[in-house]
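Q: Given only this backbone (426 positions), what sequence would you predict?
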């Protein structure tokens, strides 16, 4: 395959190749424990690539790219869902801030079918107006379900308040008026800007023959040229926050929610791993600090720590789901006082050891099976380097108590905070 592909690098059994003709990246990890393979295409496009007027376009395109392409459509009797479900495949797609992925989990003898379908819709999706209108209704219903969730509404408002300039300001599903009014022509334009082999990574995990699979990828994806234009970069940076921000959402609901958010660095920053461990020390399990001080005291039914790394800056958010009649300010003060305690006194070694052990167990469970591995790699690709996946545990194990205190002091300060309350309205 050396005439068609360039071998780029390898890490923990994962091999990276690049198709010379169009710069498509390919990741491969063989595992023959079960006769199944996962094929996934990750596009470097998500809601961060959208702007006012066409927010939600990546997600709407995700729906439309299942409606038909040049070789896979209802007219030919080869609709994507029918073709894949007839061979027992699991199929879907997901959209988020920094990426979109399309995937199939198939019996290994049907891997070529998955490759062929993904190659076809990469450049030959129909994107018809007659499909957009009913799919818009589906997406709008999804949006409205989110509007009925107190957590989803508060989370959306926290991000929109924390980010003013950067496109993380708007959620992946977009604003309702954009969902309803974006034109099919605008969606086609968006598709023609971003959906190219040189803006994508194909991942193959499971039971397959490497040379045969590379040949199939070259056969089907090789029909595409690389884009003639440069893929646009997101150059908007969020200005430094110069004071605390607050947002209160009053809606119908059963119980209140408190969210305390602080800006974090880009996902590939070396502080990411210490922040993950800090999140576990604070909120993971009954022995965590905030569980003992909030849940055990009857002030909240549960806690949730959000510290997912993104391509650009993210948020470190503690969510507390309050019990009835609990005072929001009381819970907020407990969270902030705990942050102050860690900044001044640090954490104990036994807390760190427990958090690292919890992380190792979580990672082990989350990487069980070909799809699970492909999905985790997909997120690392979105952050900016798939080796974030292969180096993650080693870097987690190297976190020290000094690192925890350092990141707490560096990021958990008042001027970088956004606090959100969901207040039930009777």
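A: Predicted residues:
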């Amino acid at each position: 395959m050396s005439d068609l592909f360039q071998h780029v690098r390898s890490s923990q059994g994962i091999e990276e190749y690049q198709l010379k003709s169009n710069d498509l990246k390919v990741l491969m990890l063989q595992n023959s424990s079960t006769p199944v393979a996962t094929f996934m295409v990750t596009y470097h496009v998500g809601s961060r690539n959208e702007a006012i007027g066409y927010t939600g376009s990546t997600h709407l395109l995700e729906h439309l790219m299942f409606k038909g392409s040049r070789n896979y459509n209802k007219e030919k009797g080869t609709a994507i869902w029918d073709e894949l479900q007839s061979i027992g495949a699991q199929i879907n797609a997901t959209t988020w801030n920094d990426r979109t992925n399309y995937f199939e989990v198939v019996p290994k003898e049907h891997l070529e079918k998955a490759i062929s379908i993904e190659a076809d819709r990469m450049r030959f999706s129909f994107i018809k107006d007659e499909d957009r209108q009913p799919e818009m209704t589906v997406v709008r219903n999804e949006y409205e379900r989110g509007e009925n969730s107190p957590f989803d509404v508060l989370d959306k408002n926290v991000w929109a308040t924390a980010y003013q300039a950067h496109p993380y300001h708007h959620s992946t599903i977009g604003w309702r008026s954009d969902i309803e009014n974006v034109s099919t022509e605008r969606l086609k334009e968006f598709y023609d800007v971003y959906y190219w082999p040189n803006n994508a990574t194909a991942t193959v995990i499971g039971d397959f023959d490497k040379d045969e699979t590379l040949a199939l990828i070259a056969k089907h994806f090789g029909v595409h040229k690389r884009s003639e234009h440069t893929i646009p970069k997101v150059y908007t940076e969020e200005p430094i926050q110069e004071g605390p921000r607050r947002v209160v959402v009053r809606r119908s609901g059963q119980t209140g929610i408190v969210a305390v958010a602080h800006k974090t660095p880009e996902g590939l920053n070396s502080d990411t791993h210490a922040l993950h461990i800090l999140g576990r020390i604070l909120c993971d399990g009954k022995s965590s600090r905030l569980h003992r001080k909030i849940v055990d005291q009857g002030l909240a039914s549960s806690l949730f720590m959000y510290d997912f790394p993104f391509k650009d800056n993210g948020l470190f958010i503690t969510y507390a789901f309050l019990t009835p009649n609990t005072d929001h300010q009381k819970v907020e003060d407990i969270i902030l006082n705990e942050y102050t305690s860690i900044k001044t006194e640090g954490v104990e070694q036994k807390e760190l050891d427990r958090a690292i052990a919890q992380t190792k167990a979580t990672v082990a469970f989350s990487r069980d099976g070909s799809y699970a591995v492909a999905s985790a790699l997909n997120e690392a690709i979105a952050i900016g380097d798939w080796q974030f996946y292969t180096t993650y545990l080693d870097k987690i194990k190297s976190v020290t108590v000094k690192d925890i205190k350092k990141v707490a002091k560096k990021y958990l300060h008042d001027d970088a905070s956004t606090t959100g309350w969901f207040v039930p309205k009777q």
